Amino acid sequence: MTYETLLRSSGVVSGESDLWCTYAAVRTLRWLDRVGDLPSPETVAGFLASRQNSDGGYAWSAGMSSDAWATYYCTQAMADLPNGSRGEAGRPSSAWVWSAANEDGGFAMTPGQASDVWATYYAVRTLVEIYGEQPPEALQDWLAALQAEDGGLAWSPGHAKDGASDVRACYYAITAWRTATGGRGPLPWDRERLTGWLRGRQSAAGGFTFQEGDETDCLWATFRATSALRRLDETPRDVEGCVAWIRARLSPDGSFTRWPGYPVPDVWAAFCAVGALRELGAGLDDIADRVVEAVLSFRTGQGGFTYREPELASEVLTTSAHLLAGRLSGTGERDAVRWMESCMMPNENGIMYMPGRGSEVRCTLWGLAAGAFANDAAARLKIADWLATAIRNPDGGYGYWEGRASDMVSTCAAAEILHRTEGDAAAACLPGIAGYVATCETVPGQYANVPGGRPALRATLQALRALHRTGRTDAAAVGDALTRHRVRGGGFANEGNRVPDLLSTYESTLAADVFGLAVDPEHLRKFLDSVRTADGGFAWTPLMAASGGPLADCLGRRLELRLSSEQHALPPLALS
């Protein structure tokens, strides 16, 4: 497994724009005062607007639930676009943001979830900078509780008790405080200890790491560390060395790479490098033209951006979907698996959605299900250790990535991964998973995606699967859930029993198999016929005429294989 595999990009390219990439590209251009170079800013605005839901929030992908992460990126990127290109999108109301506020003074990524510093940062900046509103006074106490014993700041007050400080958490907390207060009033943390911890993350080479004990400097950590220090009116220990380290990541064509030895230039590297150089007061005029040219080369036909040149921008979910659907074979299959195994950042052991991003629990499950590390027991044990020590939340559950509050989708994915890895690390996580699942039970046998949320079929089945992996089997509750959400004409519905959808039908069939319950082949076949598209793909619901893309096609194909004479087993996937 080498980074050169990533450079060849032997995964599968989706060709789609990505929300985070689009935000990073637009903001980088604004920092360089070159947003006017966008050839068609109205198409960027159209892409961003397509992520808005009827509740006023925004989602990572069309059709998903709103969250603070997507709402921040969409509204901020729209605000950065030239006047006249934004239309009416971007300012419906602040009501959705307030719906994610918690009584403790922090904000959740989605309503009902626990507060974390990622979500709190996004919510505070959205309220103040987009809507001109002030966050609650209790925010200050919540932020103050983030300081850990080592002086750094953690993802949540619960994480702070465990001493889990991170450069990103420091930046998000400090920026939330400064945004809310304008930098006026007392700092809610011990300045000397906080500044000392941040400065201590700089290596002799000049770059920064995220956490104590990390071995590889990266641009993301360097940008967040320099930004956090700047907001404290402080500087790194070695400013000149930091500038030199950042500029060493720049290639002649104007693209940046994230860390030494990593060959893939991407939009996040450009975003982090330009952002850090601005924070350090370093000049950008001599590199601006090259950087702009590189960033604009990451545009897709949809109007947004992906992380690198679109024809090379493979990602793990699409690659996994093609592998699981049997669309790759021979050398192509082997190359795709090796490519996914290369999708790991230094200092982490999970699989990333896109190279250069942080590891994500769902993507790790999809990658493993598609064959990654199938013959590498040592790598699987490292993944189990990552789940046990790096991203497990104090409540015992898991979020999409490190520091994000727990939800049922991620917790179920973690339970399925641990079931594949076994060992001491896996066993240590199981009681916590059971404990978190219990907090999401709304009435006996019914579960929500987050504590306090609405019960739904997929969350219930994911909860019961997670409990099953901890040794607690409740086939009766599974049977009740399937009966409650069974649609007479075929398939299963996530809410009620009227409109079936592919995700719920997949999870229902998977749960029936896991718990030894009968599957009605004719009922499943009728549903598949209702979502099969003219081109041989699958729609997410019978109400949609077009294919839902590679992920929908993968789930539909796996259900077809389940109905075949061989009755192929369904991979234990979780998506939303």
Please tell me about this protein's structure.
This protein is mainly alpha-helical and 576 residues long. Helices cover 48% and strands 1% of the residues. The protein has 25 helices and 2 strands. The chain has helices at 3-8, 19-31, 41-49, 68-80, 95-99, 117-130, 139-144, 157-161, 167-181, 191-199, 219-231, 239-247, 267-279, 288-296, 316-324, 330-341, 361-369, 377-390, 408-421, 423-439, 457-469, 475-485, 502-514, 521-531, 550-563; strands spanning 441-443, 446-447. Helix 15 runs antiparallel to helix 16, helix 15 (316-324) packs parallel to helix 17 and helix 18 packs antiparallel against helix 19 (408-421). The protein is globular and about 70 Å long.
Feature tags:
576 residues; mainly alpha; two-stranded antiparallel ribbon; 2 strands; globular
Low-confidence stretches: none
What global shape is seen? globular
**Termini Cα gap:** 30 Å
Give the C-alpha Rg: 23 Å
Could you spell the SSE succession in H and E letters?
HHHHHHHHHHHHHHHHHHHHEEHHHHH
Q: What can be said about the biggest beta sheet?
A: 2 strands, antiparallel
The DSSP helix count reads 25
**Which percent range fits the helix content?**
40-55%
Strand numbers in spatial order across the main sheet: 1-2
Q: Could you say which structural class the secondary elements and strand pairing correspond to?
A: mainly alpha
Number of distinct beta strands: 2
The share of residues in extended strands comes to under 5%
What is the typical, i.e. mean, pLDDT? 93
